[in-house]
From TrEMBL, chains A, B:
SMART domains: CoA_binding. This is Redox-sensing transcriptional repressor Rex. The keyword Hydrolase does not apply. The gene is rex. Modulates transcription in response to changes in cellular NADH/NAD(+) redox state.
């Protein structure tokens, strides 16, 4: 399987399909529903069913023509493709309220995102702990990333120091950044950045309030 | 325009198109690009271009056949349809780290989501302020919602009190809840709930780390 040749747009959609299946499994509907068709996934996700079949076909024969996909197997396979079947080592830069909240956020560990350290430049915070995670001096972030083999950096520092901290993460060897700061970074093209905008979470709601 | 007859799946996709246009406008590419075609939106969002044209056609004639949509006008219209062109009054239940972080989150105000109050049951927090927002006794949440005409409640309380607090929000008259607690509520069907899972934000990243 030549994974590199898969268009990024297909990867985005696989993420959408995976979320759709996870939701079905979480609400318990998965127990009755052993097989899911591309039409059912289309109904929930809004992606055209032919597109869904095409996207999944990149990764081999999942389902039976005309029948559908085995729900649990397909979900497991999507997890594997998306790299969600293993543990990833994370650091957080910024020990403010959001940094603290993310350290205590149960969902990360549950999904295999293990926080290894938190970094700040405030001397009154350095050396203390949030939960059982130490706050380190931001100056030591590069060495920590190398020594602990960190995969992903979460950036929750103020906007005016965000680029500088992102540069340090990349210098340490981080390949992917989850950024909560309201800035667009200038970074080498091979570094994957996902900018989080929490106000997006409201979008589905306001349409219905508006009716 | 009979808004109520629009399928919810179309609304979800409008949200996706809106995000796509916002991204283009934010990165400054919108300045050069006056017109965007359904094929270009398809390329970015992963939704089939015929589907995009069909979805947008629900709301009238936006573009010129064979030419595309005027980028800024389409974005303005999507904002309006999605209820994102006006201000919404918000409360936050839970004055923990995440509650504090959300009060200080710049993106909400920027997008018209105005936080009017924060609620907690901890006597040492009640009466204090986060930024310029007062922390009120959770017992007063129903009356506050009614008096201040609150539209949306954000729920960041621990899982074991989440259902109780959601019930209070609904009793006060709230129609939409943004829920960060790891629970699925039992609420009247007319109440719109969006469960936030921050670990989803990692999904686009781990595929590439996995290559």
């Amino acid at each position: 399987m030549k994974k590199k040749s898969i268009p990024s747009i297909t990867i985005n959609r696989l993420s959408i399909y995976h979320r759709c299946l996870e939701k079905i499994l979480e609400t318990g509907k998965g127990k009755e529903l052993e097989i899911i068709s591309s039409f059912e996934i289309a109904e929930i996700t809004g992606v055209n069913s032919a597109q869904i079949r095409k996207d999944l076909a990149y990764f081999g024969e999942f389902g039976k023509r005309g029948l559908g996909y085995p729900l649990i197997d397909l979900n497991r396979e999507l997890k594997k493709i998306l790299g969600l079947d293993k543990e990833w080592s994370i650091i957080i830069a910024g020990a403010g309220n959001l940094g603290k909240a993310l350290v205590n956020y149960k969902g990360f560990q549950k999904r295999g995102f293990i926080i290894k350290g938190i970094f700040d430049n405030n001397p009154s915070k350095i050396g203390k702990k949030i939960g059982h995670i130490f706050i380190h001096d931001i100056k030591k972030i590069e060495k920590f990333i190398q020594a602990e083999n960190i995969n992903i950096g979460i950036l929750v520092v103020p906007a005016d120091s965000a680029q500088e901290v992102a540069d340090k993460m990349v210098a340490g060897g981080i390949k992917a950044i989850l950024n909560f700061a309201p800035v667009h970074f200038i970074l080498p093209p091979e570094i994957k950045v996902h900018n989080v905008d929490l106000s997006i979470e409201f979008e589905g709601l306001t349409y219905y309030l508006n009716l």
